[in-house]
Amino acid sequence: MIIDTQDLAPQDWAARFSARMAGIRASEIRELLKLLEQPDILSFAGGIPDPALFPAGPIRQAYAEILGDGAQAAQALQYTVSEGHGPLRRWIAERMTRDGMPCEPENVLLTAGSQQALDLLGKLFLDPGAAVMVARPTYLGALQAFNAYQPAYLDLPEGALTGDKAAQAAVEARKPRLGYFVPDFANPTGVSLTLAEREALLDLAESLDFPLVEDGAYRELRFGGEAIPSLLALDIARNGSIEAARTLFCGTLSKTLSPALRIGWICGPKAAIEKLVLLKQGGDLHVSTINQMVAHRVVSEGYDQHLGNLRAVYGGQARAMLAALERHMPAGVSWISPEGGMFVWLTLPGGIDGKALLERALVDARVAFVPGAPFFAEAPAANTLRLSYSLLPPEQIEEGVRRLAGLIGE
Ligand code: PMP
């Protein structure tokens, strides 16, 4: 029998998806940014590490040494425990301790990048309708991770961390179940919370009794200013021990070693980590054993020197971008100078829409960036955009900014 497939009605998949899929949608901007494949476009879009900075040599050597040793190869290619490879877990606990967050390996769960950490934390804390308090704007990937758990978002109102009682009352009225923040060099704004804002955020979380997720993805990429204690460090300092803290810190080796290794972690009180281990087990059992062993070998030697190099390169790129913005941007455009990370956040004069500007920039200026609107959980500010300087050398940053400024000037 020959069936003409054109006559068959397609399955009505949409009717079968779970209710939670209503909040899961593709981003228009990703579609637009597919144009980036074209080689003559200068891209400030991808918030990703410069591949020239990957420690490919040490990574290659680590794989070779592990696989060249019978006993290690047998371990590396086998399943492992959901908590994570012991030596790497210990290294992370020691590193967190040195960064002001005294903890034990049992306070650490290895995850497939910090993106999976956000998914697991959403699963752990969020019922449908639960209010998640986020910065305005915030990391789009966190919204995407949490969306599967059908939360209701609440932007941190202006003034809530600087003593504005009305703003604090607005937060209280929404009864947050969770707070999510990127206190150091946030994606997308590059902004860091001041020490006073961090303390105020902890005060707010304490008084309304909700847990905090601290996303420390860029924390190690400071190239200017003074280090500020993490939220978790301040939380431990005020409560005496990580077991009494309400903050869960998400870390990652993606920005410092390589995102392809997919090595991230959650560090927090054991009572939460133990539940997260069960979720990790149900989700994907564990992070790749060999990648954890490789990562451990690579970070065990010369990691701080490597970080110094990254900071010098990203700092140089950031300075090039800030100088180019000063030189070329027309009046009415403002931006925030970062002290670390990969991003500069631009605000355009009110009438200019970031997405419309991107459409023209790709065609007329051969420059790409990410419009700001998708980074807002509530009421997007369309006249914003995110520029990343991590992928281009200073001369091309200058040229890209010049072209973009020309277009905005029109
Ligand atoms: N958090 C933030 C703020 C990020 O910018 C990113 C990467 N874009 C992640 C988490 C996730 O990174 P990974 O899963 O590679 O650790």
UniProtKB/TrEMBL annotation:
BP term (GO), one: alpha-amino acid metabolic process
Q: Name one Pfam family in it.
A: Aminotran_1_2
The family database entries (InterPro entries) matched by this protein are listed as: Aminotransferase_I/II_large, Class-I_PLP-dep_aminotransf, PyrdxlP-dep_Trfase, PyrdxlP-dep_Trfase_major, PyrdxlP-dep_Trfase_small
Question: Its Gene Ontology molecular function terms?
Answer: pyridoxal phosphate binding; transaminase activity
Name the cofactor(s): pyridoxal 5'-phosphate
Q: Which family does it belong to?
A: Belongs to the class-I pyridoxal-phosphate-dependent aminotransferase family.
| PANTHER family registered for this protein in UniProt | AMINOTRANSFERASE, KYNURENINE_ALPHA-AMINOADIPATE AMINOTRANSFERASE, MITOCHONDRIAL
Q: Share what the entry says about its subunit structure, partners included.
A: Homodimer.
The protein's name in its UniProt record: GntR family transcriptional regulator
Q: Which organism is it from?
A: Caulobacter zeae
What are the top taxonomic ranks of the organism? Bacteria, Pseudomonadati, Pseudomonadota, Alphaproteobacteria, Caulobacterales
